[in-house]
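Please, why this fold?
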Amino acid sequence: MDWVERIAGIRQWSRSGYRAPHKPLLLLYALGHYQRHGPAPIVYSAAEEQLGRLLKEFGPPRPTTPAYPFHHLTADGVWTVRSADGAGSPGPRVGRLRATDARGRLAPDLADALADDPRLLGRIARSLLDANFAPSLHTDICVLAGLALDAADAVGEDEAAGRRDPRFREQLLMAYEYRCAFCGFDGWLDGSAVALEAAHVRWRAYGGPDDPANGLCLCSLHHKLFDKGVLGLAADRTVTVSQRFVGRGGSARDVVLALSGRPSARPQPGFSAVDAGHVDWHTREVFRSPARAMPAADPV
């Protein structure tokens, strides 16, 4: 049995590009738990807070609960849930999962396969990350899920770049003349651009193409903040900053908060501006709305 393919085919609610990575996040957490504790069960009440953090930080910007994947993943044959009395899952309600001391674990045949093949866990985790999240978020997800991938299993921007169109980064940086579209950073080292990255507006995991009309040249910091939903784009291509972002120091004010309402750079002639449909997707699925109001102009 090819467990990587089987897990990749797990049913997720989806419609018109909406993100629903609840089951993948639970599986990544379960894989991290397996690394530390083997096939021991995961008690819902003990894991609820950490699972909730994973969903809040890396799920879509809509209210959700870890009870949903904890119960519904049982339908996919890779996860089992039992109550303290030995009965099956009591359902997706938080109160019932707590009251029955529900506990979940990887299906026995999957746990056996992980024990037989030490590299399988990394392959499954890599597949889940690539299929559901922007590369800039992979390391942060692993840390919060308690998942340790060795060097051969590491995932991130460099590895993802090997699977994307190799011309995407080159074209995008050229389109924006090797400057961050948000802050104008244009650093070079020994003749090469440094800390400038090709950011997808609509993630590749959700059908975003390797096309300049789906990209921005961003510095490393603003790329991460864009993928986390701190920063976004309005319909007129001005930068939006989430009201949920808190930064009290001068650096946060100058580097993040001051971007609110600032026009993002346009690509040079000959390259397409970011497509409105991709901007809409990012606003709906990634940006942590509402946006901050534009700062008032100083009185003359």
Remarks:
- Residues 3-159 form one domain.
- The chain has 13 helices and nine strands.
- Residues 23 and 69 are 5 Å apart (CA to CA).
